[in-house]
Design a protein that fits this description.
- This protein is of the alpha/beta class.
- The chain folds into four domains: 123 residues, Response regulator (Rossmann fold, 3-Layer(aba) Sandwich), CATH 3.40.50.2300; 163 residues, Rossmann fold (3-Layer(aba) Sandwich); 74 residues, Orthogonal Bundle (Helicase, Ruva Protein, domain 3), CATH 1.10.8.60; 54 residues, Orthogonal Bundle (Arc Repressor Mutant, subunit A).
- Helix content is 45%, strand content 14%.
- It has 18 helices and 18 strands.
- The radius of gyration is 30 Å and the shape is elongated.
- The two termini are 58 Å apart.
- Bound molecules: adenosine-5'-diphosphate and magnesium ion.
């Protein structure tokens, strides 16, 4: 059979010559390249070399059976579409196969039309997926601005604001939750400023004790305090002509706030312990994840400094408010970490994507980046699947939607989840025990305790019970 790039490799595992012949006849004109083996062991052996997209396997095979093969194949590559076929017309093996991740279950003798349609559908889907992958890569180029990825209206607005502000600003306040990309915004502002090759000096205001921080910002003279053995310039002098980035400005102590205000107003710095003032020409970018207005109201932040800084403000939206950016960001980080860890990871399975999309991302882009980098480390196959995601994604907890008065103890949460599982499996306690990974006795014990606490049933979203 000749091979073109548009063909997908398909492995057929079957020991009956008649079925094999029917399969190869039926699929002769389709966009698949067929490989055949007659038992599961050979299939597993050839998997790494063939890397098929589709596996079609009989249920009854000599040695390892089709269901076990299904599990082992998906373990090694969750992106493979697995079709099981069998003479067994009872529903149990079919349900079992689908539950274990098979994408279809075909009855023998095979109906050629059904087989052809099923394969066509999978081929179409795979092609579309490849196309969207390529599309995503192109989109990353289009929707990247100074190292930032974003296509949501909110982020496009941020990009536009940076472009407008960068050529002219004297000071800018960048606000947003932690992990939203404030550092990147600050760097972009500097890179697009008229002096991008001048220094960009960063000071994290929360990292240093008060006296050291002042000396870091403004410098000191020898003997100004214990340990000041030499004259030292601060970052305002160092960054002369360029940009000073004051990160976590909300942590700045009151005395340093007063000095900073003087620098901003007069464009002069005074080293700690020195009477002389030096003129500096710097742009200042301040960033914070705190609500400075509230801090002003409660007397923790100088009002005059706040107004000086916040005349121009860029507020970076939290990731939860721009979930449209998730797919591109995922792709971006996947590429970054797959290549960093030298893994041939090409994508994320649909169910893993669904799980990621359902998350509320309180840690914003940084949390997403960590999740993807962790998944790339864990991934054994060439796609990231549910099992590769960090532990916290294992069981979806909807706590983010609750208000504080609705929050419950872990025990109650456990009980509610038990009821939900029982609901789903139609009250079958053996099945529920299997899913939950606990003994049936434990279930009975939990159920008897539920009877004692009315709280389990009292919240919206709690399941009906039998
Ligand atoms: N829009 C974005 N595109 C690509 N990477 C981003 C984006 N926003 C944030 N990041 C990445 O997420 C991490 C956290 O961003 P950072 O700027 O340090 O957040 P913040 O300073 O607001 O806490 C960094 O590794 C950064 O590169
Ligand atoms: Mg930061």
């Amino acid at each position: 059979m000749h091979r073109t790039d548009a063909e997908l490799r398909m492995l057929v595992v079957e020991d009956e010559p008649a079925t094999l012949e029917l399969v190869s006849k039926t699929l002769a004109g389709e966009k698949v390249q067929l490989f055949t083996v007659s038992d599961a062991e050979s299939a597993l052996e050839r998997l790494p070399e063939l890397r098929p997209r589709i596996v079609l396997s009989d249920l009854l095979l000599p040695g390892i059976n089709g269901l076990e093969l299904l599990e082992r194949v998906l373990e090694s590559d969750a992106g493979i579409d697995f079709i099981l076929m069998s003479r067994e017309s009872s529903t149990e093996p079919a349900i079992d196969a689908i539950r274990k991740g098979a994408c279809d279950y075909l009855l023998k003798p095979l109906d050629p039309d059904r087989l052809r349609n099923c394969v066509r559908h999978l081929v179409d889907e795979a092609m579309t997926r490849q196309k969207t992958l390529r599309l995503d890569e192109d989109l990353i180029d289009v929707f990247q601005f100074q190292g930032m990825i974003g296509r949501s209206p909110l982020m496009l607005e941020v990009f536009a604001k940076i472009r407008r502000i960068a050529p002219h600003f004297e000071s800018v306040l960048v606000t947003g939750e932690t992990g939203t990309g404030k550092d990147l915004v600050a760097r972009a502002l500097h890179n697009l400023s008229p002096q991008p090759s001048a220094p960009f000096a960063v000071c994290n205001c929360s990292a240093l004790v008060e006296t050291l921080l002042e000396s870091e910002l403004f410098g000191h003279v020898r003997g100004a305090f214990t340990g000041a053995v030499e004259n030292k310039q601060g970052i305002f002098e160092y960054a002369n002509g360029g940009t000073v980035f004051l990160d976590e400005i909300g942590e700045l102590a009151m005395s340093a706030q007063a000095k900073l205000l003087r620098v901003l107003q007069n464009r002069e710095v005074q080293r700690v312990g020195s009477p002389t003032r030096r003129t500096v020409n710097v742009r200042v970018i301040a960033a914070t994840n705190r609500d400075l207005r509230k801090m002003v109201a409660s007397g923790q932040f100088r009002e005059d400094l706040f107004y000086r800084l916040s005349a121009i403000e860029i507020s970076v939206p939290s990731l939860g408010k721009r979930k449209e950016d998730l797919p591109l960001l995922q792709r971006h980080f996947l590429k970054k970490y797959a290549s960093r860890y030298e893994k041939a990871i090409t994508g994320i399975t649909r169910r893993a994507q669904t799980r990621l999309a359902a998350h509320s991302w309180p840690g914003n882009v940084r949390e997403l980046e960590n999740a993807i980098s962790g998944s790339c480390i864990m991934a054994t196959g060439n796609v990231i699947d549910l099992a590769d995601l960090p532990e916290m994604f294992a069981a979806p907890v909807e706590a983010a939607d609750y208000e504080e008065r609705e929050l419950v103890t872990l025990e109650v949460m456990e009980q509610r989840y038990l009821l939900k599982v029982l609901d789903v499996v139609g009250g079958n306690k053996a099945r529920a025990a299997e899913i939950l990974g606990i003994g049936r006795n434990t279930i009975y014990q939990m159920l008897s305790r539920i009877g004692e606490s009315a709280e389990v049933f009292s919240s919206p979203g709690s399941p009906k019970t039998a």
